Amino acid sequence: MSLQGKKILLGISAGIAAYKIPLLVRLLKKEGAEVQVLMTQNACQFVSDLTLATLSEKSVLSEIFPKSSQVSPTSWTCHVALGEWADLYVIAPATANTLAKLASGLCDDMLTATFLTMPATKPRLIFPSMDREMYRSRSVQRNMLQLVEDGCKIIEPESGELASGLIGEGRMPEPENIMASIHSEFQNMLQIDRLKNKRILITAGATREKIDDVRFVSNYSSGKMGFALAGEAAKHGAEVVLISGKTYLETPGGVKRIDIESAEEMFEEAKLYFEWSDVFISAAAVADYRPEKKIDGKFKKTTDSFELQMVKNPDILAHFGEQKKRNQIAIGFALESSDHLKHAQEKLIKKNLDVVVLNSPNIDGAGFEVDTNIVTILSKEGDIQEYPLMSKRDIATLILKKSSCFFDKD
Length: 410
Ligand code: PMT
Description:
Bound molecules: ligand PMT
Number of helices: 13
Helix content: 25-40%
CATH superfamily of the largest domain: CoaB-like
């Protein structure tokens, strides 16, 4: 795929790897992209703005307030225009300082201010690069996590010899590898753009089934998988309704969120939106059973044991898949701890689904609570694709890409 006509903002902060960026600019220009370089003041210590301006054929911007009195009175607002103009924002290298500013919304130069003016629907690729211990520090890790939650894609640095002489992770990928990430981002956009204006209903998180006024039966689902799906779908122009169990996650931009507690409440809300939807994705960990009768008040500890009678909850996904589905694409998850593939295939058929995403609660880095997952995606056509450990955001992109294939056939 060529980058002809693509508009790319290239933010450079003050890491030694900045010396490789002129090559990246050349590669981008050779493929026909328009490149606007935004550079922190300190980055100019590592690479010359004249070199970058010459290669990009555009003035390099650093300060929000231009120094020259010759400039037009509106040039200080060009960060706003640039956010609108760009198709993609690449920040390479991203130093610890720049990551901290981006994560907390500070905007005291062109690189950071323009970052805030980019609509949340546009992709942002960030290439952290710094020394090993800085990269491992809790603050850097925390800031990266925040940026991922804000919808950015962080490309992990490579491991190798660092400027300090230490060996470890922290090296910015070579310009050719950065180009590969840019290509793959545009490829994803092209595919997922078919979801633009499509209506997507997603369930996420755990339901709580009340025992009494202060206790409930639930599970470990954090909502991260469902929220990642909602955020990515909205980013690509879909209309998204997210029905969520209790979670402390922030609602992704552009998403309509409905909070519920129990499976029955989730079911009632989902009924209101299923017909409206083009795609239904059931990422919630819905409790299969609930206490038959909620005890009023706080249950007193008067006996050594007590029995709790449980009754079956509605299977929300099965109800829609088996009884209500018309043109909708129905995507379910299968959380399996044994006979994984067999059970996932059974769910695909029995619940009349188009796609099942199989994951497991007993593999490190997969399932509940973590930011990553390991999935196998099964489709009704019989494909089975296994994927390695990936961020939940990247898995969300995969799932959405998969669902957008069904629209190709329209
Ligand atoms: O929220 P996180 O911490 O990020 O964790 C993500 C996850 C592990 C919860 C998610 O990836 C996942 O696997 N969600 C489905 C969990 C589950 O309940 O799986 P299941 O195999 O029991 O159910 C199969 C499918 O039926 C699921 O799509 C489920 O949403 C749906 N279901 C199940 C029971 C029920 N009563 N109603 C349903 O709709």
